[in-house]
Amino acid sequence: MNQVSRWCRTIADKLHVIVVALSIFLVVTSPWILIGSRLRAKASIWDSLHVYLGLVAAIFGLLFLLKNLLNGHWRQFFPWLTLDFGQLVQEIKQIPQERLPSSGGKGIFSIVEGIGLVLMALVSITGIAWFVYQGSSDALMWRKYHIMFAQGFVGFLVIHIIFAAFHIIDMVRNS
Questions:
Q1: Which of 58, 82, 88, 156 is most buried, most CB within 10 Å of its CB?
Q2: Residues of 13-31 as b/e, b for ≥16 C-beta within 10 angstroms?
Q3: Which runs of consecutive H residues, i.e. helices, occur in the chain?
Q4: pTM here?
Q5: Rounded to an integer, what distance in angstroms lies between the CA atom of residue 87 and that of residue 152?
Q6: What is the rounded CA–CA span in Å between residue 30 and residue 50?
C-alpha cells in the first residue's frame, strides 16, 4: 500500500473524530460570528476561521456521510427506507420497563444518528452554497438555511451526547 493510500485510510478511520472536533469548534465559536451576505475584507479572526474551517468541516462531513452510506450501512441509519421497523418497535416497547435502547443495529440510537448525518450534510451543503453565492442576492437565503440546519444539528449533538452517556451507563451496569 503506498503512502497516499495509507494517509487516506488513516483519515477515513478518524473521520468521526475530525468531524466532531471541527463541529464543536464551529458551534462553540458561532456566537461571535458576524457574517451577512459575504465575508468582509477586514473580517475578524472568528469570522475567517468559521468560514474556512467550516469549508474543511463540510468536506470531511460529506466524506463521513459517504463512508457511512457505503457498503449497505445506510440500512443501519435509515431502516425506515426499507420499512424495517422491527428493532425500533421492540426498543420503544422496552422503554417503560426501563431498558435502554441498544447501540448499533437499526434501533432508536441508529435512527437518531441517521438524522444527524442528514443534518450534518444539510449544514455542509448550505454552508458551501452560502460561500459560493456570497455577495449575491441568494447569499442571505443560504445563510438562513445554514443557520436553521446548524441549530438542528446542535440539537442533534446534545441528543447524541445524552445517548452516548446512556450507552456508557449501560456498559458499566452490564460489566
A1: 58
A2: eebeebbeebbeebeeeee
A3: 3-13, 15-29, 45-69, 74-77, 86-94, 108-132, 139-174
A4: 0.89
A5: 25
A6: 7
8 Å CB contact between 158 and 119:
no
Angle between helices 108-132 and 139-174 (to 10 degrees): 150
Task: Quick: pLDDT tens for 36-77.
Answer: 888 888 989 999 999 999 999 999 999 999 999 987 789 999
Cell numbers 451577512 correspond to 36
Considering Cα of 92, then 83, then 145, then 44, what sign does the dihedral take?
A: positive
Whole-Å CA distances, 128 to 18, 46, 75, 81: 18, 17, 27, 27
CA distance 168 to 175: 11
Residue type, 140: L
